[in-house]
Design goal:
By secondary structure, this protein is α+β, with helices and mostly antiparallel strands. It contains eight helices and nine strands. The N terminus is likely disordered. One of its GO terms (molecular function) is iron ion binding.
Length: 291
Amino acid sequence: MSVTTTAAPTWAPMTSEQREQFDTDGYLILRGVLSPDEVAHYSSALDAAYAQHPHAPDGSLHLLSAVTSCPELAGLIDHPETFPLVWSMLGWNIHIYHSHLDVHPPLAAPKPEWWHWHQDGGRQNRELETDPRPRLSVKLAYWLSDVSQTGRGNLTLIPGSHTTNWLPGPPKRDVPWPTPDGARQVQVDAGDVVFFDRRIWHARSDNRSDITRKCVFLGYTYRWIAVRDEVRALPGKPWWNRLNPVQQQLLGGIGGLDGDHAWGHYPETTPLYNELRERGLLDPNYPPLIP
């Protein structure tokens, strides 16, 4: 199968209903985004990555820098059914700062107790003083395995918790502790996508099924926030020239280390700005999308 990396013919911005739900719950579920052929293609790409990289003792693979590690995933970073939600929330001056692909086979035995609950952002959650903390980034989770039932390594989250800075938890992560109130395992099919605010409290549940859990996570933020992914050498890779300009921007290839460019001082030389302008999708009523 060939997966295109060219820009989609149409982009539909986030609806007012989607924005209201996202602001209230901190996440959206997008059903049937990937076709069966796309699921098969990207699942095969994860299988290849799994075969090429060392696994954890439990057989799982948590591989950072998803597209750098597996270039076949490039078609997901500006997928026409999901990417408009990203720029609808964050605007055009963005890049992917953190991404990973996950392969979790069924567990052979129960794992020791460990408190996995967290907000994305790392030190941002210690060093920003506002309450609630600013959104700063959003994430797309592309599901390539069926987690329509609980116990399959489902993403677990607390709806509405993105406006809560602290979650009551154990004194140490290895101390047994009850599941937080309101937590739910998100049940989705292969090909579905979960779009979520980085601040929502979430965790990965254990895979106690007979299905291997497969998912790709892509985190987007403003270009004035440092990239965690390994992307600096990407413009020298053979597959780089097959990417469209927006994809190259999202992987950190536009503006390089130029701080002014990352701060959005040169809109006309920023591919996503030009793409949105040409499509008539800049919005003077929403600050991140002001022309």
